Amino acid sequence: MVEFIDADVAPARNTGQVRLYGADAFSGMHAAGGLTARCLDALEEIIAPGVTTQAIDDFVLDFATSHGAIPATLYYRGYRKASCTSINHVVCHGIPSNKALKEGDVVNVDVTLILDGWHGDSSRMYRVGDVRRAADRLLQVTLHALELGVAQVRPGNTTGDIGYAIQTYVEGERCSVVREFCGHGVGRLFHDMPNILHYGRPGDGVRLQPGMIFTIEPMVNLGRPHVKVLSDGWTAVTRDRSLSAQYEHTVGVTPDGCEVFTPSPRMVSNL
Ligand code: MF3
Ligand code: CO
Ligand code: CO
Fold first, then answer.
1. Which residues does residue 183 pair with via DSSP β-bridges, in sequence order?
2. Which residues neighbour 152 within 8 Å (Cβ) at sequence distance 6 or greater?
């Protein structure tokens, strides 16, 4: 049985309890998440054929520092970049490098900015020039899967309701949901309780309560769901090398539903 704890009195580490945050946290998360969303918006103007993923990372670091924020991934568990950049069959945690993007690629950029101690975590997909129809459809399906997950966030529903909504939709579109990585509690900490699985059954998991803050970040593959991590210890790829996509929002549970802390008019599906 999961325990809940008032975030104002919780120790500064993951205790296995689910933090319940108050109004100050929601406004702090709104600022941090909004800044992360503006950073991802600005990247739409930069990402193009020939641009390296290191150039994307340089932009994110510069954007963060010039807005009084710190990228949470920098020096996190030995990671040394301000973002993750995951191209094509890379599922997540791609490490920025001097490899250039090319026409037809799809790339996820995942950014977490810490502003006044609050973590705003979001990622989205970018199309590099014109992309194939199958790639475009995968991106649409993945973004809509995130939207369907967010639509389940309200008091009384459970984390399993979120996972179930995502999984049934994705599999109905003949795509697959990655199991090895999940969403997570976030707020004062980068990765906190509870885990938010992107698959599951209605009513399973943790019952949602006002004050909970977490991410939803489904990874969806065109082929099989299985992944492996490369020898760099970070880069996760699809085992069958099929295309993979991911979108991520940070959300908070309110008394009558949810607040998305990382919204953008550029991150809305047309499904
Ligand atoms: N931002 C990722 C997430 O959504 C975590 C990246 S951790 C890193 O949770 F170390 F790989 F950068
Ligand atoms: Co993220
Ligand atoms: Co996350």
1. 196
2. 161, 162, 165
pLDDT one-digit tens code per residue, 106-163:
999 999 999 999 999 999 999 999 999 999 999 999 999 999 999 999 999 999 999 9
Residue 161 Cα to ligand 1 middle (Å): 24
Contact 40, 110 (CB under 8 A): no
Fold classified for 18-260: Creatine Amidinohydrolase (3.90.230)
In sequence order, the β-bridge partners of residue 119 are 114
pLDDT value at residue 64: 98
pLDDT (0 to 100) of residue 171: 98
Per-residue DSSP letters for the chain? ---EEETTTS-SS--SSEEE--HHHHHHHHHHHHHHHHHHHHHTTT--TT-BHHHHHHHHHHHHHHTT-EETTTTGGG---SSEEEETTEEE-PPP-SPBP-TT-EEEEEEEEEETTEEEEEEEEEE-SS--HHHHHHHHHHHHHHHHHHTT-STT-BHHHHHHHHHHHHHHTT-EE-SS--EEE-SSSSSEEEEE-SS--TT-SPBP-TT-EEEE--EEESS-S-EEE-TTSS-EEETT---EEE-BEEEEEETTEEEESS--TTS----
Residues of the chain with pLDDT under 50: none
- Best residue among 84, 214, 216, 247 to mutate for probing ligand 1's pocket (most ligand atoms within 8 Å of CB) is 84
Q: Pocket residues for ligand 1 (CB within 6 Å)?
A: 73, 76-77, 79, 84, 93, 110, 112, 121, 215, 217, 234, 248
